[in-house]
Structure formats: C-alpha cells, structure tokens
Amino acid sequence: MAPPLSRRSVLRAAALAAATPAPAQAAAGTAAAAGGASAVPAAWTAVPFGLGDVSLGAGLFADKRELMLDHARGYDIDRLLQVFRANAGLPTGDAVAPGGWEGLDGEANGNLRGHYTGHFLTMLAQALASTGERVFAERIGTAVGALTEVRAALRADPVVRSVPGRFGGAVENGRGSHQYVDLPAGVLGGASAITLAAWVKPVHHDAWARVLDFGDDTTRYLYLATRTANGVPRFAVTTGGAGAEQGIDGTAALPLDRWSHLAVTVADGTGTLYVDGTAVGRNTAMTLTPAALGTLAHHWLGRSHYPADPVLAGALGGFDVWSRALDPAEVAALGAAGPADTPAGRGDLVSYAFDETGGSRIADASGRGLTATLRRTWGGPSHPGFLAAYPETQFIELESMTGSDYSRVWAPYYTAHKILRGLLDAHAATGDARALDLASGMGDWMHARLSALPSATLQRMWGIFSSGEFGGVVEAVCDLHAVTGDPRHLELARLFDLDRLIDACAADVDTLDGLHANQHIPIFTGLVRLYDATGERRYLTAARNFWGMVVPGRVYANGGTSTGEFWKAAGVIAGTIGPTTAETCCAYNMLKLSRALFLHEQNPAYMDYYERTLYNQVLGSKRDLADAEKPLVTYFIGLGPGQARDFTPKQGTTCCEGTGMESATKYQDSVYFTRPDGSALYVNLYSPSTLRWAATGVTLTQTTGYPREQGSTLTFGGADAAFELRLRVPGWAGAGFGVTVNGRAVPGSPTPGSYFGVSRTWRAGDVVRVDVPFLLRVERTLDDPSLQALFHGPVHLVARGSATEYPRFGLYRFAALSGDLLPGFSPVPGRPLHLFLDGTEFAPFHEGTTDPSHAYFRRAEPVVVFGGLDSRVANPARADGTSLLDEVWSAAPFATGAALVARVRSTVTAWVSAGLLTAADGEKVVATAERATYQP
Length: 936
Fold this sequence. Notes:
- The protein is 31% helix and 21% strand.
- It is of the alpha+beta class.
- Strand 38 (863-866) and strand 39 form a beta hairpin.
- The two termini are 64 Å apart.
- Mean pLDDT is 94; it is low at 1-37.
C-alpha cells in the first residue's frame, strides 16, 4: 500500500483532479509533480472546472452519488486485483475473482477481465476529487501498489509458489495464472511399462485440466486429466488424435480443495487408473505404451496440448515416474507416505518433490538430473510496459483475425484503455508517480506493438466487430501524451485511426446503420482530443458531424441510443423500441462526446442533449438502493411496454456497470464552464452546487430543488470580478424564462435553445434568480407521430404498468393556452413530479426502481375537445397522421382565448377546403372552442 496521504495531500488532490475528458486533468497531474501551472489546449474556447472545484449540494444528484460511494467504500478491492495477480502468478490470498465479465467462468471465458478495475480506479479518483475522503486515496494506493507488483512479476520469469503438500512441499498454480511445469526430454525413457503418480489438489471443476500431458500436438500424446466433461479423471494415450485414444476413466469426481493421489500403471496391454490407492478403472486392450510414442516434443505438468483446455488450477504435491508397473500394494502405499518412504521408492525415471520455495527451477530427485522449469503458456510480455489481467495472446491473435470471435479475442485494446484511463485518473487525483509510470509503460508497449504493423493490418483490426473494439483509448493516450510529452504517445493515438469511418463522417456521409454503437461513440471523443493535439481539422469535423448523425435521429426520449447494442437507420425510433434499447455505456460516451465538443463550440444543443440524458437515462440507470457489493446499474433500459429495469445485468461486472460507477461520481462535471480568458462563466445545468473559481476568487452557490423546482438561485461570494454570466435557456423552455439580479428583472428576450447573458462586476452577496417554467408536453417519435413520450420540463415521465401493449391517452381536452398539458393531470400528494391520468400514475424516469413502466404511449384523440367541452366531432387526420387538434395546438402558446379561437377558425377553414372536414362539423368545432374556458 502507498503511504497514507496527509490531509493536505488529499485536499490538494481533490482540487487538482478534473473530470474526463482530461487534458487539463493530465496537465494538473504534471503540475502537481512539477509545481507548474495546468495547460489548456489552444483549441478550447471553453474550459471545464475540476470535480474538486464544484461540490454537489443536497438533492437528487448527491443522493444518487452517495449510493455509489457506498459501493466505492465497501467493495473488496482485492477481488478486482485477484485476476491481475493470478495472471502474474502472484498469491491471491483468499480473494475471490468478481465473476461475470471479470471471471474465467463469465461470458467469453472472461476475455474482458481487468477492464472493471480500470473503471473502479476512475470511480475512486473521481470520488476522491469530489469528497476528499481519505479512504478513496488509500484504496487507490492499494490498487496502484498491487499493479506495480503485477507488472514487475510479469517482467520476470514465473516463480514457484510453495504451499504445504500432502507429504512435504507443493507448488501452487492459481486459477488464471497460465503457468505450468515444463519437463525436459527423456522423462519417459522409452519405457514399455510405466507408472505415473502425482498428488493433486484441484480447486476448480474445470473440465480437461491436465495433471500431465506428454506429446507433440493433438495427434500423438498421453495425458492424465483431473476431470473430463463427465466429471471423472481420465488417462489416455494415442497416436491418432482424440478419436483413437486408448483410455481409462475413473468413476467419481475428485474432490475440490483436497489432496488426491492419482496413479496410472501400463504394462502388458493393461492399464489401470488408481485414485487414493484404489483401482477405479482398467483397460485390458491397451496396445500403446510410452515406447510406442517415440520421442515427444513436450512433457508438461498442468498444461494441455489442446489450446482451449484450461491450465490446472490448484496444487501439485509430488510427481514420480517409474519404468515399471507398480503392483497394487505399492500404489496403495504411495497414498500413505512420500515415495521415498514406501517400498516403491522414488521414481527411477523422474521424481519431483516440489520442495522449492522460490525461483522457477524444480529439482529432480531420481538421480537423472532432469530439472524442470516453471513457465507461462504464453511465454512472457513482448515489452516491459505490458500490464493486463490475461496473457498478451489476445493482442497477438487480433493481428491475424479477419472476423469477430469474442470467445477468442474480446476487445483487448478496450480493456487496455480502461486500465490506462484508471491509472491516469489515479495519478491526477493523488500524484502517485507509480500510476503514471504504469500508464506510460502501457503507452510504450502499445506503441511498440502497433507501430510495427502495416497500416492495412491496423485498418482491418479496428474494423472488426467486438474483437477490434478499442473504446476510448485514443482519448486516454492523448491525455497520456499531455502529461509525458513523449512523441511516441501521440503517434500511438493516431495508429487507431479507422480511416473509412473518419473520412465518411468528415464528409457528412452517414454510414452508422448496422454499426455497434458503443464500439464507435468513444472513437469520436478521441478524435476531438487528437484535434486538440494535432490541429488536424478532419478529426473535429468528423466528430461534430457524427454527433449530428446520432442526435436526434437515433436518440430515444430518455437520451439513450442503440437497440440490441446496434444502430439502425436514422429516424427509426418507434421501429427499434424493445427490451434491449438504450445501452447505458452509450449514454455515458455520448455525454463525454457532447462535453468534448462543447469545449470547442458552445452550442447549446450539446448541453440540451446533456441535460436530457443526464436527468433521465443516466440517473435512471442507477437503482435507488445502497449496496456495497454491486453498483446496481442497468446494461439496457428496455423502453417497450411494461419493461422493468434490471440493475444486476448479465453475470455482473459489465462495461455498463463500470461506466455507471463513473457517471455516478462525476455528476457535477458539466455544470459550469468558463472561457479561457475568464470573460464568461457558463451555467449549463441547474443543479444544487457550489463553484470555487480559484482564478478569480469567486464562489458561486446554486440553491435549487431542480427538477422538482422550476428554477434556481445563484449567490455570489468571495472576490469581486467582472465577467458575463451565461445562463442556458433550455430548448424546451417556453414563455416565462426570466432572470433577476438582486430582485431586479434583467431586460432581454431569452430564446429557447440559447444562452442569456448578464454582464457586470459581480460582488459577494449578489443574488441571481433564474425562473424556468416547466410545461407538460409530448415528444413524438420521428417515424410514428402517434407514439409519444411525456415530459415535464427536462423530466421524462413514464407510465407505471405491466401491460405488454402501449397504453392509450388523450391529452388535449384540458390543454392550457400556453400549450401546457398539465391541467389534464392530477398531482400525486407528497410525490413531486408524480402525476395521475385516467387512473395511471406517471413517474420520473430518473427514479431507479424495478417497477414495470411505459416510456412511450399511444396518443388517442378520437374527438375534438376544448377546455373539457366535447364537440362530438371526430378528430380528423391527414395521411401523415397529423390531426386537426395537432394542427391547432402546434401554434401554442396563445396570448388569449380569442387567439386560440382564431387559430381554430383558420384551421377549420383550411381543413374544410381540403375536404378533411365537413362545414357543419367545422361550425361545431369553432362553436365548442368559443364556449370553452381555458387556463393560461
């Protein structure tokens, strides 16, 4: 563990760490070490504040974050480190691997393990920056220290892990270590009769793990396995592959976590398999002997010639080979004492007692001097900077792949990215030089590996679904370069260019249909950072155009995107809704991209999207329940009828749970921005928070219950400073958005989807009140206007219910002159933002519950109604689905009832002329509108 940080160090770290994307964060880390100032990319026209500069006040965000902080404080970090330590052959103690995507028994054999530790490190770094709690610094130090030990172990030859055996010593082989014992040639000595005996202590029910496998390949070999697919031990010998094996099967499974003695005798055409001194299987038709196999290339303990078979997990407590078949009594005696103390004596061909306590060499006590060596199945890293929780083989295999197979190779560079990102964030938060050294080493290793490949190979790799996914590695490597200044790191970032995608998006050609969404979104955040570092315009242009291809044409009401992880054609929303919509990772990465683009262009649309997705998809993806063991975050959020959210998705430790941990500890990262020269302060989100703007000495406290409150109060403290306060006017805002300073209205005409500026010299005690009236409104899906979602201000309201069909609602009957649909609903007492309509309760999407809900409903307005008065005229519609009432209310707001009646009259006249409405019915409609009374 790293030395505990002093209180001053913790507070300094909290002040330095910034939210991702993080060139400023990277620079802050450098500044912490060198005592210099943080650098801001020249291309930025807005600058973010660090997480330590903005503290959350009491409210929805603070409550959600506290639930995740319980997990950050309570989860056993040694469980995450277990997979790294196992891969390096280090002791793992009593730690149990997390399972799910982080476990060897998880999806695709755990080929993504290690990614979750990176997510967890980022969460800890963000939690430290936000709260200053010592526990987070200590946990970062534990993880960084362990990963430093892991890398050192990977750089060296594997070392024997000595444990007590049944009689004497034993060598332990942790599950996931990929280590085995390599015996020299001549072990079998060309014997025509033989006895093989070993003490074995398996710790997992892996099928086909070998005690021994002597052979050339998968054609000529002999082996002894602890467990077949049927669960019993087996000995076999063959010169013709698996189909020609001459074998002996046991009758019962070997117990786990307990020593068992296995022995095999072969002589005179008969083979016998013994377990704990008792014969459990016999084959009297064995024509093959070790002599028949001839000279073999490999003699392995714990490793199979079949690549898909697992390495033996457990311990070996002695291995002996005799050049004769021991009799049953001799075999039985071996189960009661070490071989030297039995009538058989030590094996005359080879005898390994495994009494070593270190090193990688294992002595032979047979007198033949056949010293064995502990090795890794994959050899070792190609570069000293390599760090992972699995062998380098996934990276190697990817280079020759032409199609996806995630059971073999699952996004290794994505996993490398998460580890790299976590280390960079750990360094920025604590200043721990070890974290930067590990991160820099990873960059050096990736550069060494990828720079040696032809461009065509790289393009092929990055275009492979899933296997070639590399996540946000470009962004992370650019941030690494911002700290190290090493030109190889910038060169590395450009080696991930997927040219066909970049060029298409730069030309504003939409090729997203059929692409895996989350594989591609983070690519563009990386391109924005590459633009910062290189000035190459096509990177920024591609990212900006890409964003426009996703928003709004592929975005659901809650801000999420993707269906079954993939995109369909732009504009197809209703046609893609189902149980596997809105992958949580996609929302996380779209927010990162929106934020990165905002740093270059303060387009309010980026923050309108940010608000929508943060207040709905992101908040709603976290269950409202504390749990130290699980983050309780969704993978998909099904938006179909009656869908309930699954907060423990798949087998656990998924990418979405990882990004969910990150999202929940950086809610404040985009509330405020400033211009590089300090001439303006952007308030993007109305959220209870306090900004400490060190460069000006200004503090700004935002007090609000938003979104339960329709507005916010901003109070200045600290030093005087002159700048423009730029307040976001949400795109959904209607009439009534207003600003007062010290009680006096600020003149101007706020425009929805813009910023409203107030310029002055701000002094301590100044109070700004921002009123943001909410309207209850609907949003129609682009491909089916009758399928709609309900919003109250920024809040997506979902209808509770488990029916498997969309509910049907009519909403115009009590609509206000403003267009507000709220008068038709009843509030639920004591439950803010909860409404009733026709016996159905509507609730905020951000509530993290498992209640089945309807994110969308079917709009049904069968008759024309105004102010609750029924005209008894059917509501006609055009061929495109637009109804008469839709046409009337599209002109809202109306200043007066007379203005509404005038709109009704003109619309009726047009529809009668078009043959869509009879004159008589038109008169009834106008008369009803005239008689009705309306709320403002």
